[in-house]
Structure formats: C-alpha cells, structure tokens
Amino acid sequence: MFRIAIHFFFIVSSLVTNAQLKTGWYRAEIKRPDSAAIVFNAEAVISNGKTVLFIRNDQERLKVDNIKVKEDSVFIDMPFFESTFKLRKQKDHSLKGVWIKGTSRNNLEFPVVFTFGKKERFPVTGSSSANITGKWQVTFTRATGGERPAVATFQQKGNYLSGSFITPSGDYRFLEGVVNGKQLQLSCFDGSHAYLFTADVSNNSITNGKYYNSASAVEQWRAFKNQNAELPDTSQRTQLREGESRLNFSFKDVNGKTVSINDEQFRNQVVIIQLMGSWCPNCMDESKFLGDFYKQYESKGVKIIALAYEYSTDVQRSKASIQKFIDRFSIQYPVLIAPVAVNDPERTEKTLPQLTPIRSFPTTIFIGKDGTVQKVHSGFYGPGTGAYYEQFQKEFYETVETLLKK
Predict the structure, then answer these.
(1) Please, which residues have CB within 8 angstroms of residue 284's CB and are 6 or more apart in sequence?
(2) Is residue 235 part of a domain?
(3) Considering the domain boundaries, does residue 329 fall inside one?
(4) What is residue 234's predicted lDDT score, i.e. its pLDDT?
C-alpha cells in the first residue's frame, strides 16, 4: 500500500505545476482515533511564483516547499521524515484529507483539516489564573503504569505559553499553546512529532495532565515547580565496552560508496560520529547544528561521519528519507546507512560491537587524532530548550577544541 501511495504521488506530481493555494494562515487539526485533536498552524505564502508553507511552532518556522496542486487536490511532502498530506480544497479555501506517517511497521493515517483564516492555535477564553513560567520537575506515567522523569521549561506571557520538555535522551522541541483559567493546552507538529498536552495548572503544581503522541496510548503527567529541577543520572548510556578503545566499521553511503573509519581521510583527524535516524526529530536538529559546525571546522582538522539507523533494511526507502536531511541542510559529510533496522534488538552488536547497546538517538561519539574514542554523548537538546541548548553548544565546542590541541 505504501509503495502504491508514493508511486501515485509522484505520477501526479510529474503531471502538474505548483498551482496557487489561498495565501494566509491555516489552523490544522489532526484527529487521533480517540478523537483528540493535535493542532498546529501554517502560513501559505507565494515565493518566486511558488506556494510555500511555513509551519509555526512558537519561534520555529518550518519551511515546506514540496507542494503539488492539481485542480482541487493538494499533495504536501514534508521536508523531513516519511510524512505527507493528501488533501482536497473546500469552497471556503480550507483543506480536508489525511496525514500519512511512515513507521517501522505499517503507515499511520490520520484525518486532518486545515481551516483557512485562523492564525490562533487554541482560542483564548478568559484570563489565566496562574503564571507557570520557570522550570518544573515532571513525571510521565505510561499506559502500562511505568514512570519516566522529565524537566519542563515554560515561558508564559498573558495567556500565551511556550516551552519544551527535556528527557534523558532529548527534548520535545518547540511547543506552543495557552493557559485559559486553570487549563493548559500545548502542541507541536514537525512532520514526525505530533504532540498535544493538556493539564490543570496552579502557580506551583500541574495535575491531571494528559500527553497525546500521534496514535500512541495516552500518558498521564504531573509536575511541581522547581527552579533546580534536574534529570536523574543514568548508568544506561552508551559507552565503550571494557577492553575496547577504537571503533571499526565500513558501511555504504547514500551513493553506494563504502566508507570506513579506517580510511586515510580520517587519519590524524578529530572525528565525530553521529548515530542518527531520518525518522528522529532531535536528529534533525542535531544535523542542522552539525552541518553548520562542519563548515567552520573541516579546515581545522575535524571530520564527521553520520551512521543512519532506519525503519527498515530497504536501501532505497532509507536513501530517500535520508536525502531529505542532506538536501535541506546541505550536509557535506558522509551519511552511511546501517545494514540493520533501528528496531533490531541486536543493532549495536551487528554494527558497532565495540559499544554497549545504543539506547538513544542521536548519540555522538568523539574520536581523537590517535583514533581512540574519547567521549560518548547520548541525546541532544535542541534550540527549543533555551539554556539547555546553549550549554550543549558550549560543551560540544570545548570538547572539539580540547581534542584538536592534543
């Protein structure tokens, strides 16, 4: 079914030019099977005669320029991830159809409506009774009953609310919403993340929280205000196995060329290994960061190799998804395709047996000029996390500069 849908998409795309959508703001609602609506906003503009959408999540404007229109049909291919919209124009300029999201198993399909002329995400229905700006210690409770920790950082101005959740492995990117009375609503959409958070709030506590993630089971969450909130230390992070000091791998890049860590081009260089996946929003943010970093530091003796763990071992499927990252960020370093699916329980043993199990994506490995592993960093805190992102950049640059001096 997936191949048929994609084949149909490209047949239609090849027959039409990019006709005009009605320019202006849209409020999109993705309907989950339980009828909860994950809401986001997008603005349609004309750029160089072409329709472009900018999806808004707080300060982020995610550019979407692969849009095909034929009569009343609209096809939108997201710039990252296996994520597309198939829509039909309505008389009031709104759009109705489905959002299709690729996964490691079957594709997920959700009804979606883009209502034209609505810039607001959630309506403001009254003044807020609390201001929750600050840091919060958060506990999520899975549908199975297990708990997982997080830290939330919120910024509230009047009713408007923004911020993110930070977990041991990464962050939930840019969230946008409101506080109406004692009710919190937050959401985001980037092509992979489709999140909705609701809760009851006071100045010092958050209760009765619900977290909706695409079609996943609903999680409960609660929080208390704590400016010193921290994530717990974990001994489960990826590291070198005892007795190991070097990585040893050879894999093909997206062009079919075999690249090895033992190649001459990496000798006497500081090498950064990015373990990532094209399905991973935090990997998207890290890829943007590394793409810009590489332009500054390649001439100083730094190399980067990305190793992508994808949804399947279908090379063509993986290549198509990875290529979106390469094209959008003009990535100049090699991106290799791991010969295992990301959900393979032996993915580490089959690809990088020198490491303990890879538990989170992205994971970043720093290799010194002598070829030995100097540091392994799990997770990534992106620009939606404010001070956490600033601290990450500071530590990253300090690590590289230290290795260059050795």
Answers:
(1) 80, 81, 190, 192, 325
(2) no
(3) yes
(4) 63
Q: Please indicate, yes or no, whether residues 112 and 139 belong to a single structural domain of this protein.
A: no
Take residue 90 and report the two structure tokens written for it.
Answer: 């309505």
Domain that holds residue 165: 134-225
Give per-residue pLDDT as tens, 307-348.
Answer: 999 999 999 999 999 999 999 999 999 999 999 999 999 999
Query: Quick one: which of 212, 210, 162 has its CA closest to 33?
Result: 212
Sheet arrangement for strand 373-378: 335-341, 302-310, 270-276, 363-367, 373-378
- 352 closest CA partner among 250, 214, 218: 250
**C-alpha gyration radius of the chain:** 22
Q: Residues 349, 394: one domain?
A: yes
Average pLDDT over every residue of 181-209:
97
pLDDT of 230 higher than 80: yes
Yes or no: say if 365 and 247 are a contact pair by the CB < 8 Å rule. yes
Give every CB contact of residue 59 below 8 A, 6+ residues apart in sequence: 162, 174
Say if CB 177 and CB 161 are below 8 A apart. Answer: yes
SS3 for 184? strand
Cα distance between residue 153 and residue 24, in whole Å: 31
Q: What is the pTM of this model?
A: 0.91
pLDDT at residue 16 is higher than 70: no
CATH number for the domain spanning 174: value is 2.40.128.120
Per-residue pLDDT at 8: 45
Q: Do 343 and 400 sit in the same domain of this protein?
A: yes
Which residue is listed with tokens 């720093």? 366
Query: Which two three-digit tokens encode residue 186?
Result: 């937050």
The H-or-E segment that residue 292 falls in is helix 281-297
Residue that the structure tokens 């002329």 belong to = 117
